[in-house]
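S.,

Sequence below, as promised.
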Amino acid sequence: MTKRSASSQKDGKVAASGQKVSQNESQSDPGGKLEDEEDRRVGLGKKVTLLRGISIIIGTIIGAGIFISPKGILKHSGSIGMSLIVWIACGVLSLFGALCYAELGTCIKKSGGHYTYILEAFGPQMAFIRLWADLIAIRPASMAVISLAFGQYILEPLFMPCAIPPMAVKLATAIGITSVMYLNSMSVTWTARIQMILTFSKLLAISIIIVPGVYQLFKGETKNFENAFELSNVKLSGMPLAFYSGMYAYAGWFYLNFVTEEVDNPERTVPLAICISMAIVTCCYVLTNVAYYTVMSAEELLASEAVAVTFAEKLLGNFSIAVPFFVALSCYGSMNGCLFALSRMFFVASREGQLPEVLSMIHVRRHTPLAAVLILYPMTMLQVFVGDIYSLLNFMSFLRWLFIGVVVLGLIYLRYTKPDLPRPFKVPLFIPVVFCLTCFFMVFLSLYSDPVNTGIGFAISLTGIPAYYIFIYFNQRPKWLQRALDSFNRTLQIILFVVPAEQ
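The prediction came back faster than expected:
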């Protein structure tokens, strides 16, 4: 890993180029190319327009969940009416969180998302702990899960009605992951274009469910909505778990903030893209669930392993064979959007000196952060073939919301510590307060309801503390270790044909 002095780590002023600058030195130019004081250009340009920003957010949020298994919310909320309320409430809460990130994205115009905001508010140690948990467990596991869903559903039409061999699923998954990595390595423009196409295909798939479902509703198929708010099965202890499922389904509204430096006119584009995307996703999710209930009772939905497939079989006949294909496209879009955003977080972390230097280099011809794109590939493939992915996600699901709560707490903290920071977009204070309290409430309630899994998650995350002091904080490394790290960076730089960002 690239080392900086302890005083440099403790000093919060780091330019977007990763170099120390004084307050009167320029960090970026209006033309979209970051520059340092010697007028050297960074290769990542501003290629994310409003439409591409919307496609990144929607395309990442809408994964397999809404098509496969919204039954988690129904199971824990206890009734159809309460489940719909939870879907709406989770949409509103996610919008609150997204608006907070819109403020952060317009006043801190650096890519990196959670990592960058924690770094700016609370310093390098807290930021590294978040980065460490992401790198060793959270991101490879979540990528592996969504990729396995892609492998399962892309093969479904070929094997119907037989079961798909597990190894076939893993091989299809490996091909899917490799193709996404290749696409993100080759071109930023084509990555964004493919993401737009996949987003439109997701919205088409959802409309195929919503339109006939709403038609059934207008025909009078409302028997499943009778006594929708029956409270006999509603348990207060289950509501946090219902909200967990809902917030997981909405997760992804923060990914545009990972690529802020590549957004065209971020002061306007980031808030607008977030608000439009959240409105579209919330409407789609609620209407899709209403459509499900016009065809399936609560008992049938809870018994279904793939809700959208069951819905299609009941209502669409032979056309139901197309649903697994649309689910696979939806998963692929989530894989593509996640990787596009996450690679920028690793790029920025390397630029800040907390990951190997080669991760902040770009390909000479492709102008993509090639090493940062590929860093998740080995761990993700390992998780796909040998990892206990779902238990790992159980350990880590609460950590996601803990750190998001910390980020929004950082927004409130920056309001008081840096009141003069330019804020082109500013949300009312009650929005970050409500969202922050909700995140911490869910996290601490999970500590009470599932102390073993959350304790293991904490333990995995806290291993970042000794790692920070070993790799980052202490200046003096053994010469043999420093030579090995330098040799590693040079070798990868030659193999990947990448150069430092400033030219």
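The beta strands are 361-363, 498-500.

Coffee later?
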